[in-house]
Design goal:
Rossmann fold; 13 helices; alpha/beta; 2 domains; 430 residues; six-stranded mixed β-sheet
């Protein structure tokens, strides 16, 4: 019987067709099932990409968390956000079973790295004929973000009597025309705690004259708004504000605002900055602008510079605003001719160089020293080196961080522009 069956060739085609049909259908089914699996993978990969990117997005909770960390480590807030985004992206998807997900978001130095991996099982249909019940798909997404640089700014503002000059040529003219000695300076006279109501400082107020320190105070206050707008976290930029002193009798730095990330508080205090007072005209031979002392003093306050990679290691920036003319008792090291022991000179950059050698960056805003052609003192002592003042101020600054502006051109805009330049410059990481 078996021999007859084998030897009978009449039904072989049908049998062979039946036998071959199973793998053909299975193979075709497998191709369809693999196509479905690829569609599922595309969906899951898109969700993983979105989750990884969201975890380290500039405005994410993870970045905020990282910028408050003093050391490296995992970011729990970022992990939670990544999981939420993934679920939101895949919530309505069907045709698969999610086996596992894994999320890692870590801060290392200034870099945040998010890795989102997944694995899912896609049921088969026709491929089951071949014993293939499911197709496994997996993948991962990676995203990185460079955190912003942390910086401490120490604003050193020249408020010495020379900053009492009219802010614009029109202001200068008004002061000259309304003073018996044709003085362009609004001297702020306070003796033994009692203010002279007839001083030129009060005259300037009555005349509606804006003096240079008024403009600087307003610009400094406005700068805080710019800093608040540009910072990525509340502690990214800290500010401290100092002037050359409150009164000429006690020539030491005046702390207007201590180092803080509360820029609203700094803004309020900065707006009230006033001109250094003197007890009488020509007090101490007018030697109140000691750049050497001021720069050395600010260097003692700043502390060690950091890399800027974290709040615990901020960069240190001295933001120096002045008209650039020194006037101090400096008989032996003055760079210009002395009047007795009095030294009047464009800024001596010795202390600037020392600060930069320590790793501090110096940003210099030079408020142009306007000519005073009717002033004999100016013509004899300042005019001969007028052209050198901006050159010395630029030499004081770190490369690329010098800005000159006339008060009439807008000190507020200039200060903002210089600040933006500082924060946009790349930082050293090693």
């Amino acid at each position: 019987m078996f021999k007859r069956l084998v030897g009978d060739r009449s039904g072989n085609f049908g049998m062979m067709t039946a036998l071959l049909l199973v793998p053909v259908i299975g193979t075709a089914g497998l191709a369809l099932d693999i196509s479905d699996a690829l569609l599922v993978k595309t969906t899951l990969q898109g969700a993983a990409d979105a989750a990884a990117i969201a975890a380290v997005a500039e405005s994410s909770a993870g970045v905020t968390e990282a910028m408050h960390m003093s050391s490296d480590g995992p970011l729990t807030a970022a992990v939670a956000d990544a999981k939420k985004i993934f679920i939101a992206q895949t919530g309505s998807a069907e045709g698969y079973e999610l086996i596992s997900t894994d999320v890692s978001v870590v801060k290392h130095g200034s870099e945040l790295k998010a890795v989102f991996s997944y694995k899912a099982k896609v049921p088969t249909t026709l491929a089951r004929i071949l014993g293939q019940d499911a197709v496994t798909v997996s993948g991962k997404a990676e995203a990185t973000f460079q955190t912003q640089t942390f910086r401490d700014f120490y604003l050193l503002l020249d408020n010495t009597p020379s900053m009492g000059v009219g802010a614009t040529p029109a202001d200068i003219t008004k002061m000259v025309n309304n003073t018996s000695d044709e003085c362009a300076f609004a001297c702020h006279i306070v003796k033994n705690g009692v203010e002279n109501k007839n001083s030129y400082y009060n005259l300037a107020k009555k005349l509606g004259v804006t003096i240079r320190i008024d403009v600087v105070a307003k610009a400094t206050a406005a700068l805080m708004e710019t800093a608040k707008t540009l910072r990525k976290s509340s502690n990214q930029y800290r500010m401290a504000v100092y002037t050359f002193g409150e009164k000429a009798e006690d020539t030491k730095l005046l702390e207007v605002a201590s180092l803080t990330d509360n820029l609203d508080s700094v803004q309020t205090k900065a707006a009230k900055i006033g001109l250094m007072s003197i007890p009488e005209k020509n007090y101490n031979n007018d030697q109140q602008t000691d750049f050497d002392r001021a720069l050395k003093s600010i260097g003692q306050l700043v502390g060690a510079p950091g890399t800027g990679a974290s709040a615990a290691s901020p960069e240190k920036v001295v933001f120096f605003v002045s008209d650039g003319v020194g006037d101090a008792e400096k008989p032996s090291t003055c760079t210009k001719a002395t009047n007795g022991r009095r030294c009047q000179e464009p800024i001596d950059i010795t202390e600037c160089t020392a600060l930069k050698a320590k790793g501090y960056r110096i940003a210099v805003l030079y408020t142009t020293y306007l000519p005073l052609p009717t002033n004999d003192w100016y013509n004899k002592w300042i005019k001969p080196f007028q052209a050198e003042i901006p050159k010395r101020m630029e030499a004081c600054a770190s490369p690329g961080l010098f800005f000159e502006v006339s008060p009439s051109e807008g000190i507020t805009n200039a200060m903002n522009a210089l600040f933006k330049k500082i924060v946009s410059m790349p930082r050293l990481t090693s």
